[in-house]
Every structure is written in structure tokens, then in C-alpha cells.
Write a structure and sequence with these properties.
The complex is a heterodimer of chains A (129) and B (280). Chain A is of the alpha+beta class and 129 residues long. Helices cover 36% and strands 23% of the residues of chain A. Chain A has helices at 6-18, 20-25, 72-78, 90-94, 107-112, 114-122, and strands spanning 31-37, 40-47, 50-55, 66-70, 102-105. In chain A, strand 2 and strand 3 form a beta hairpin. Chain A is globular and about 30 Å long. The termini of chain A are close together. Chain B has 280 residues and is of the alpha/beta class. In chain B, 35% of the residues lie in helices and 19% in strands. An 8-stranded mixed sheet of chain B has the order 1-2-4-3-5-6-7-8, sandwiched between helices. The chains are: A alpha+beta (129), B alpha/beta (280).
């Protein structure tokens, strides 16, 4: 199973749902986020710091609050156990100086939940391949 | 025996532009004055490791100050009626007023991030009163950080400001110290981090001036490889323009060398301090 396929996403989802810190700092993290790893995209539904649903069925009826879109190669560096410089953080990758990640939509919700949201993304480094 | 650190804290009144600023500073050691500047939206605590380090404070009088509106330095009268925007003029002139009040004899100034960028302005206007500059995570232009999200009542400023800088630190830096730096960033007053970033990303634009610095005092540029706000390439490009400068790139370090990874930072800093002592 490769990184960012449905099995990998399920394992990340399970890690987030088992994580004790996410339960504390993510109590108000309730929103739908689109994560696009190159051509592979998912809508991740957060509810109170858990992820009850990850949908890979993206189409005209898909809704989400904000989206993170980047090449799979960029995300692959982000999830390395020790990510290289400029790839260790979503703001590092999205900063205008670098532009490796696009953040779109109602980003106010992302900023409101930035601590918990980035914590859950960092858990991607613990997903077994 | 109580394990008391060698740091002492003081308050000094600094007159500047008709205001009587009450400024908090910490110091330790004796010798060549070494004034340490905190990063945007934080305070003197960032320098606690260097203040306590006997290898440093045996030769240097290490001083770290809280800029007005930061840490224990209260804002000037009327702050509640204006938007805070730090400018190069205020920052550089206020630092020199502080040094003058303490009667510091040709101090070394060492600052990180905005404290590094201001070194270029100090070199331009006040080099005759200074001994050397250590510009950490500094370059001639660092855009992209003056963001409204950092001061918005719909966003928790402490958590947003702190998390926005967390990725500026190296994964190799001890997590304990990275979280401690996050903690500092979670505690500034509303709009202070953003107001500092007005200087960092807007008012500081030295691209056309770096080549014209007098070069009469040494400037040591030091940048960590994980700094995505001021990358090693940005610092190297600036240092090439600046006469009498040296550029040091630090492995396994990000934007906050002194507090995110003080042990590794010390390996890079001590040779710089030794050079300054040799020429003092």
C-alpha cells in the first residue's frame, strides 16, 4: 500500500482518532477539509477533534471549508520522519516565498484551529507504509 | 543550596521621543556588553540559555531587554488608541537610547529574526557607537509575514501566532525547547506579533542599501537551514553585499537558534564571540 491511498488514509484516520492530545486541543475542530495529494484527493471530516469520515468520492457535490493542495512529491517530503528544510510544515510549504502548497477556501477556520489541525497532519509521519 | 540562576532582572527608564519608557531587562556576567534582542512578539526569555552560560557570561556582560509592549516592558501612554506598527526608525533609535541609559561602552548587538534584521539599520546609522553585530536569521528583505490572521478577534491570537512559527524550527531541535518557544509566542499582547512583523516584512527593505553599509564594524550573519522565512540562500545573498561580514549557515537549526536549540547554536556562536574578543 502506498502513501496517500485509501488504506494509508484509513491508518492516519485511526491514528488521529486514537490520539489523546488531539482530543484535548481539538475539541473545537469541527469542519470538512479537502486534502489533495497530487491527483488524489479526500474530504476529511473533523468532528470535535476526531475524524469520523474520510471520503475519496470527490465530485460536483463535494463540500468542504478549506483545501490544501500540493504535489504528492511535496507531501511525501512532509511526511518523512525527519522532513527536509522547507517541507516540515504546511505554512513553510505554502508561504509565498516557496509556494509548494496551495491553501484555499475559508482559511479563517484553519487559522482558528491551526494548532489542532497541524497536530493531526504531523501524525501522518507515524502512519505505517 | 537553592539552584538560583545568575540572571538578575531590572527596570530602567528610557527617555525617547518625549516618552518615559519603563523597560525591563535581564543581565548576567561581566565584560564586553552583549545586548541580545528577542524575536517578534516575544521577550527576553528567549535568551535564558546564553544568559546563564558561564562560557559566555565570563567574558561578556549579557543583557537582554524587553522592547516596549513586550514581556514586562509596558506600552507607552495612549497605546489603546493606535495600531501598533514597529518601524526601523523607532527600533534602532530606541535600542541606542537604551544602550545610552545603561552607559554601555561600544556594545555588541546580537539579535534574531527582526532582531537580526535591525542589525543592518544599526550598521548604517550607529556603527561608530557599536563594537560588532551578530545578525541571526537576518537578510535584506523578508516578506510575507504581515498577516491579518495574526490579529483577528475571531482567531485565538496566542495559538495562531505560536503555531504559525512552530514550523520555523528544526525537527532536530529538542521538542522541549521548541514547545517552550511556542509557549513564549502564545503570550504576547493582541496585535504585537503582527505589529512587529510590520517592521520584519514591510518597513525593513534593505535590498538597495546593503551594499552601501560603511563596513567599519564586523557583521556576523548566522542562519539555520530550517528557516523558511529567511532561508540560508537569502542570508548568503545579503551577506555578499555587506562589507566586513561573515556568513555562517547552521545545520539542525531553524529560526530561533538561541532558544530552540541552544546546545547546537553554542557550537556556532562561540567562535564568533572569540573573534569579537580578539579584536576588542
Amino acid at each position: 500500500m502506498a502513501a496517500f491511498d485509501t488504506g494509508w488514509m484509513e491508518r492516519w484516520q485511526a491514528l488521529v482518532n486514537q490520539d489523546s492530545v488531539t482530543k484535548i486541543i481539538g475539541r473545537h475542530l469541527t469542519t470538512d477539509v479537502l486534502l489533495a495529494f497530487g491527483e488524489t484527493a479526500y474530504v476529511v471530516s473533523f468532528v470535535g477533534g476526531t475524524i469520523p469520515k474520510v471520503s475519496s468520492d470527490i465530485g460536483p457535490e463535494s463540500t468542504y471549508t478549506f483545501a490544501l493542495r500540493g504535489p504528492a512529491e511535496t507531501w511525501a517530503k512532509f511526511i518523512q520522519p525527519v522532513p527536509p528544510p522547507m517541507y516540515n510544515d504546511i505554512w513553510a510549504m505554502a508561504h509565498p516565498l516557496h509556494g509548494r502548497l496551495q491553501i484555499e477556501g475559508d482559511v479563517k477556520v484553519m487559522w482558528q484551529n491551526l494548532r489542532a489541525f497541524t497536530w493531526t497532519l504531523d501524525l501522518m509521519r507515524n502512519v505505517q507504509e | 543550596m537553592a539552584n538560583i540562576e545568575p540572571i538578575t532582572g531590572h527596570y530602567v527608564r528610557v527617555p525617547y521621543a518625549g516618552e518615559d519608557y519603563r523597560v525591563f531587562y535581564e543581565e548576567a556576567g561581566q565584560g564586553v556588553p552583549l545586548v541580545c534582542l528577542h524575536t517578534a512578539g516575544t521577550d527576553t526569555r528567549e535568551w535564558r540559555h546564553q544568559l546563564c552560560d558561564a562560557d559566555i557570561n565570563s567574558d561578556f556582560r549579557v543583557i537582554a531587554l524587553d522592547l516596549p509592549r513586550h514581556g514586562k516592558s509596558i506600552p507607552p501612554t495612549g497605546w489603546w488608541k493606535e495600531e501598533y506598527k514597529l518601524t526601523a526608525q523607532f527600533y534602532s533609535e530606541f535600542l541606542m537610547a537604551f544602550c545610552q541609559e545603561l552607559e554601555l561602552d561600544n556594545p555588541v548587538i546580537m539579535g534574531s529574526s527582526m532582531g537580526g534584521n535591525i542589525c543592518l539599520h544599526l550598521a548604517r546609522q550607529f556603527s561608530s557607537a557599536l563594537r560588532a553585530l551578530i545578525a541571526i536569521e537576518a537578510c535584506d528583505y523578508s516578506p510575507g509575514w504581515w498577516l491579518d490572521w495574526l490579529w483577528n478577534p475571531q482567531v485565538h491570537g496566542g495559538e495562531a501566532c505560536a503555531t504559525s512559527v512552530y514550523g520555523l524550527m528544526s525537527p532536530q531541535s529538542p521538542e522541549e525547547y521548541r514547545r517552550e518557544t511556542w509557549w513564549y509566542y502564545s503570550q504576547s499582547g493582541p496585535g504585537i506579533f503582527k505589529g512587529d512583523l510590520y517592521f520584519y516584512s514591510v518597513d525593513h527593505d534593505f535590498r538597495e542599501m546593503a551594499e552601501n553599509l560603511p563596513g567599519d564594524i564586523p557583521i556576523y550573519f548566522m542562519t539555520g537551514v530550517y528557516d523558511f522565512a529567511c532561508t540560508p540562500e537569502m542570508t548568503e545573498k545579503t551577506a555578499k553585499k555587506v562589507k566586513n561580514s561573515e556568513c555562517i549557515i547552521m545545520e539542525e537549526i531553524g529560526h530561533f537558534p538561541m532558544c530552540e536549540n541552544p546546545v547546537t547554536f553554542k557550537k556556532y556562536l562561540m567562535p564568533v564571540l572569540a573573534k569579537i574578543l580578539q579584536t576588542s
